[in-house]
Amino acid sequence: MSTGSTHDARGAQQLRVARPATLDDALCALREMPGAQLLAGGTDFCVEVSFGSRRPTAVVALRRVEELRGHDIADGHVRIGAGTTYAEMGRGALASTLPALAAAARTVGSPQIRNAGTLGGNVATASPAGDTLPLLVALDARVRVRGAAGERVVALERFVTGVKRTVLAPDEVVVDVVVDRCRGPQEFLKVGTRNAMVIAIASVAVVVDLDARAVRVGLGSVAPVPRRCASAEAHAGEAIDWGRLWASEAALARFGELAAEACSPITDHRSTADYRSHAVAVIARRALERCIRHAT
Amino acid sequence: MPPEPAVIADRYELSVNATMRVVEDAWIGETLLFVLRERLGLPGAKNACEQGECGSCSVLLDGVVVCACLVLAVDAVGSEIQTVEGLSASGDAADIQAALVRGGGVQCGFCTPGFVVAIYDLLRRNPDADEMAVREALSGNLCRCTGYGRILDAVRAVQRARAS
Q: On chain A, which terminus has fewer CB atoms closer than 10 Å, C or N?
């Protein structure tokens, strides 16, 4: 292949596109084209290019990189390749091992979007509304990245530093995401204006860890970054009758209130801040209730 | 030294409906939708929202339904692209198209090609899809005319006809 760049008759910008088949080649392309942007599923990227809000001069397309595909389900942990699509998260052994991830993936866009968008794209884009992020943060997910200087593993909670901001360096690629397996029910709930094609107004992931007798909560779209809620988690851990896996109505309601208190939502074109807090109280309570009710 | 990364320049080939098509003198940042419509003379995939919201540009990429507006055309090099024109020419979606026309599932018609591709994809994967599965499979395709009832009726008609 030549290494030329091109522009169109309308005077569009110079642009080079690399399509590596291996991770090493992807890293090499990033070195050779400083400032290059990564392209995964394209569901954000192509919109931004088409609407002119993103003007890359060089692109490294990751769709063909074999090492980013697939997942491993081991005894203690699950490793999910960055190139795994939402559709893939929603089926098979991955879905039965991480049912709340499957539920979250199923709420993303439409079948067409879920066939294209990837886990690595969701993590690296780091939108506050990223649908996989509440569960991943609740599960203490680790993000493995590789760059010119080698590989490093960053907890998701530290990987995402702000609205669409991460610690990913310009020469680095997200390789995969690893979570520990957790015995017990888990749930993901999201509020939006319809069931499909909606960006979350608020979302909640609840994970019940039967072995640790602990509950973990991840909140989405109600803060600049996906957020845990230590007070709600501590409350649930104490309020649940772990022998029967039961909690009182009052304890469930308090769980929702504490989750809502952990939010620092904004008012924007999708929702008011007040509604976001209200919604979190409702769906956090409901998610915990469903976890307990479905557990046997 | 690692191998030189392949950098695609201003001439590339796409496999569209099992035919190799050359794209030349095109800006390399163009979407697959733009290339299909404006470079390759295949206007079946419709340009409506350009942001993956409406499904009017649904195509099959390596057998998987996607929005062509969300695919960088050069990133589809080496993949097999099937458009509604290909499904029409092969007759593979003929019963779907006929059912939509007969059942009043086509009014202004702008969304129809996207629905044909999405319905074709659904019934190939899940011929016996129930009501909820059909609605979920078509949730990424917007129609502002029919209210969807007649489109859903058409899907059921195709299912019945194929089962008998």
A: C
